[in-house]
Design brief:
heterodimer; A: six-stranded mixed β-sheet; four-stranded antiparallel β-sheet; 32% helix; disordered C terminus; B: mainly alpha; MetI-like fold
C-alpha cells in the first residue's frame, strides 16, 4: 500500500480507527478517523476535558492506542524509525529547562537527534531574529516573559525536525493581549515555514484565525470529527476575526458545540 | 554594599552585645570558671594553646571532610540506584526513612567496636550522621524533576542515558545541595562524637579532657572552634551551590 502512494497524496498524518480509554476510566476515542495533508494547518477544537491532550500523547507516541493505527508521513508507527523524533511536540506548559539558556533550550531537539552542539547552536542563532528573540541567547528562562518563553518552546519544537508539529494549547496560559500578539506572530512564522501543524485549542476564535481547517469534537467519546474549511485569505492578521465570513463560520462552529441560543432553547 | 551592611550589622551588634554581657556578668557575679568561664579567659586559652588546638582542628576537620566525601559518594549512588530501579526504591526508601528512628548517638559506639580507636571509627560516625540528608534530598530532587520535560525529550527520541544526564541529574542538583548543606553542618558534630567515644586527638578529645579537668575556658575554646568549623563548612557548600546553580532562578522564584 505504502509504496504505490505518491508523495503528494500521502497525508502527513492519518489516524485510522483509533480507540483509547483510560485504564479503568471512561472511553475517550472510539474508532476515530482523520487525516492531515502535508503543509496544512489544522485546528482541533474540543471542549475542555474531552481528551485533547491524551490525543496528543497518542500521536506523540507517549501512550499506546488500544486499537487503530497512527500513520505519519506514510509510515505506520511500528515501521517508523526508532531513533529519530517523529513529531514535533509543543506542550501546553513551555517546559523549558531552568538550567539552560535560551540558546541551549532551543537546541535541545537537535542535540538529541545527534547534531553537534556547535551546529545546533548555529541553527538556533539563525532563527532567533525571526522569532523575536534576538539578543536573548544567553538569557535564562526565568528572565523571559511568558510570551517569549512560548516562542523559545515553539522554536525548540520546530527545530526538533518532527513533522507534523503538534501544538497543545500553547497560548492558553497567556493573558489576552499577549495571546493575540502570539497568534499574529504564529501566523507570520507559519507563512515562512509552512509546516504541517495540528493545533489543539478550546478557543473558537483562535482555531478559525489560525487554521486552514477546523476539526470539531462535540461528542463523547469522540468517534468522529466535524470538519470546517476556513476559506479566509492568507496572509491573515488579527483583524480577520471581524470579517463577516469569519463571524458566520464562528456561528456554525458554535452551533455544533451547542453554544448558541437556538439550541440552548431546547428545540432539538 | 549598603545592602550587605544592612544584613550583617544587626547580627554583629547583637553578638558583640552578648559577648559584653557574658564578660560583664561573669566578672560581676564571680561565676566559677567551671560553670561559665570569662569570655576573655576563653580567648586567652585559645591563644595559649594555639599550636595544639591547630593540630586538633586540622585532624577533626579532616575526619569531617573525609566522612562527608564518602557520604556524598554513597548517598548519591544510593539515590541514583533508587531512581534507576523502582524495586530498589520501594525496598530501600522506607528503610532509609525508618532508620531515622534509630538514635545515631546510641549506634555510634558500635562503630568503635567495629573499626577500633583509629580514624575509621570517627569517619564511620560522620557517615552515619550525614548519609541520610544527602541520600534523601538527592532522591527527592530526582523525584521532583519536571515530568513535562521528560515527556518532551521522549518525543524527541531521547535515550535513557539522555533522560538521566540531561533531565534527571540537573533537576536533582538543588535537592543534593540542600542535603549537602545539612550534612556539612552536622558532620562536625559526628566527628567530635566519634572522638569522644574513643580517640587520642581531635577537638572532641580536647574538650572531653578539658571537661574532665574542669577547665571551663578550655572546653569553651574547643566548642568555639567546632562551631567555627561547622560554619566554615556550611558557607563553603553554600558558596559552591551558588556557583553551580548561579544561572538558575533564585529558589523563591523557581515556580514562577
Amino acid at each position: 500500500m505504502n509504496e504505490i502512494r505518491t508523495n503528494k497524496a500521502t497525508p502527513a498524518l492519518s489516524v485510522r480507527g483509533l480507540s483509547y480509554s483510560f485504564p479503568e476510566g471512561p472511553v475517550l476515542f472510539e474508532k476515530l478517523d482523520f487525516s492531515i495533508r502535508a503543509g496544512e494547518f489544522v485546528a482541533l477544537l474540543a471542549p475542555s476535558g474531552a481528551g485533547k491532550t491524551t490525543l496528543f500523547r497518542l500521536l506523540a507516541g507517549l501512550v499506546k492506542p488500544a486499537a487503530g493505527e497512527i500513520v505519519l508521513g506514510g509510515l505506520s508507527e511500528s515501521k517508523a524509525p526508532r531513533k529519530k523524533s517523529r513529531i514535533g511536540y509543543m506542550p501546553q506548559r513551555d517546559c523549558l529547562m531552568p538550567w539552560r539558556s535560551v540558546l541551549d533550550n532551543a537546541a535541545l531537539g537537535l542535540e538529541l537527534s545527534g547534531v553537534s552542539r556547535q551546529e545546533a547552536r548555529r541553527q538556533v542563532r539563525e532563527l532567533l531574529p525571526s522569532f523575536g528573540l534576538e539578543g536573548t541567547e544567553e538569557k535564562m528562562p526565568h528572565e523571559l516573559s511568558g510570551g517569549m518563553r512560548q516562542r523559545v518552546s515553539f522554536l525548540r519544537s520546530l527545530l526538533s525536525g518532527g513533522d507534523p508539529l503538534l501544538l497543545d494549547e500553547p497560548f492558553s496560559a497567556l493573558d489576552a493581549m499577549t495571546r493575540a500578539g502570539m497568534q499574529e506572530w504564529l501566523l507570520q512564522i507559519w507563512e515562512q515555514h509552512r509546516k504541517t501543524v495540528l493545533f489543539i485549542t478550546h478557543d473558537v476564535d483562535e482555531a478559525l484565525l489560525l487554521s486552514d481547517r477546523v476539526l470539531v469534537a462535540s461528542s463523547s467519546p469522540i468517534s468522529s470529527l466535524l470538519e470546517f474549511e476556513v476559506a479566509l485569505p492568507r496572509p491573515r492578521d488579527y483583524s480577520a476575526v471581524l470579517e463577516p465570513s469569519f463571524i458566520q463560520l464562528k456561528r456554525q462552529v458554535l452551533e455544533q458545540l451547542g453554544r448558541t441560543p437556538a439550541t440552548r432553547g431546547g428545540i432539538v | 554594599m549598603k545592602k550587605q551592611i544592612k544584613t550583617v550589622l544587626p547580627v554583629t551588634i547583637f553578638i558583640l552585645l552578648l559577648a559584653a554581657l557574658w564578660e560583664l556578668a561573669t566578672t560581676v557575679f564571680e561565676v566559677p570558671h567551671f560553670i561559665l568561664p570569662r569570655l576573655s579567659d576563653v580567648f586567652i586559652s585559645l591563644w595559649e594553646n594555639r599550636t595544639l588546638l591547630g593540630r586538633h582542628f586540622v585532624l577533626t576537620l579532616g575526619e569531617a571532610l573525609l566522612g562527608l566525601a564518602l557520604s556524598v559518594a554513597v548517598g548519591v549512588s544510593v539515590a541514583i540506584w533508587m531512581e534507576r530501579f523502582s524495586l530498589a526504591k520501594r525496598t530501600l526508601y522506607p528503610l532509609i526513612m525508618a532508620s531515622q528512628t534509630i538514635p545515631i548517638i546510641a549506634l555510634s559506639p558500635i562503630m568503635v567496636m567495629w573499626f577500633g580507636y583509629g580514624i575509621w571509627s570517627k569517619i564511620s560516625v560522620v557517615i552515619l550522621f550525614t548519609f541520610f540528608p544527602i541520600a534523601v534530598n538527592t532522591s527527592d530532587g530526582f523525584r521532583t524533576a519536571d515530568p513535562g520535560i521528560g515527556e518532551l525529550m521522549k518525543t524527541m527520541g531521547a535515550s535513557k542515558r539522555d533522560l538521566f544526564l540531561k533531565w534527571k541529574l540537573p533537576s536533582a542538583l538543588p535537592g543534593f545541595f540542600t542535603g549537602l548543606k545539612l550534612a556539612a553542618t552536622i558532620s562536625v558534630g559526628g566527628a567530635a562524637l566519634g572522638e569522644w567515644l574513643g580517640g587520642e586527638s581531635g577537638l572532641g578529645v580536647y574538650t572531653k579532657r578539658a571537661s574532665n579537668m574542669l577547665r571551663g575556658e578550655a572546653v569553651f575554646s574547643g566548642v568555639l572552634l567546632l562551631s567555627i568549623m561547622g560554619i566554615i563548612l556550611f558557607l563553603t557548600v553554600r558558596w559552591l551551590e551558588s556557583r553551580v546553580l548561579a544561572k538558575r532562578a533564585p529558589s523563591d522564584e523557581a515556580d514562577k
